[in-house]
Amino acid sequence: MLINTCRTKLFGLMLLFLALPGCASYYTHYAMFPGENSSGDPRQIRVSWQSADYPDWSFIRDKATTMKVEAQCSDRVWLLSDDSQERAGDCAVGVRACGQQNLDESVFKSGPVNEVACLQVIGPETVERIADIGAKFQLSVACRPLVSEVLKGDKIVNMDYLRASTVAYTVYARKVPRGSLSARLPEFDESVCKDD
Questions:
Q1: % residues pLDDT > 90 (the chain)
Q2: Do 28 and 52 meet the contact criterion of CB atoms below 8 Å apart?
Q3: pLDDT tens-digit profile of 150-163?
Q4: CA distances from residue 70 to 7, 56, 140, 162, 181 in whole angstroms, order as listed
Q5: Which residues, at least 6 apart from 181, have a Cβ–Cβ distance to it below 8 Å?
Q6: The pTM is what?
Q7: So where are the chain's domains?
């Protein structure tokens, strides 16, 4: 009888231990900063991603979605990935987005653009995963669009993005609980786009 009671308690403790790693906290991360697109027009740049942060005692590593980088007045959306995600390209290590042959050209390197990290998180330390990015990081841009506008149907669509620079952009991101009122991403002022 005593052995069965001990087994039951041990089994209950094992179930509790296995259930606890699922206690993640979910966050939205975002930043908005002024920049220029490759055409030299002043634009707001928005960076965003979602994360699941597990307690320090958990054996599960923190997780994150791809990092989205968008420019005001543009339909082009960059998705930066890391090695924990399927869409990560082979152009570099860490958090990066590789160029696309029919859309981009490298500003600093020669060779196929799909082998170039057009956008990459490079600091402050070596960042391997999106889930490890803190409130301040460096974003490197090494490409420009082949054409800044394309025709889709009967509509001209802007595909421009953040201007390439030898100096990385410093980004300050907010981290807020997902689902809270402050988790709404800041919106672009589209009235600027109509003037272009």
A1: 61
A2: no
A3: 998 899 999 999 99
A4: 55, 32, 14, 8, 22
A5: none
A6: 0.85
A7: 27-195
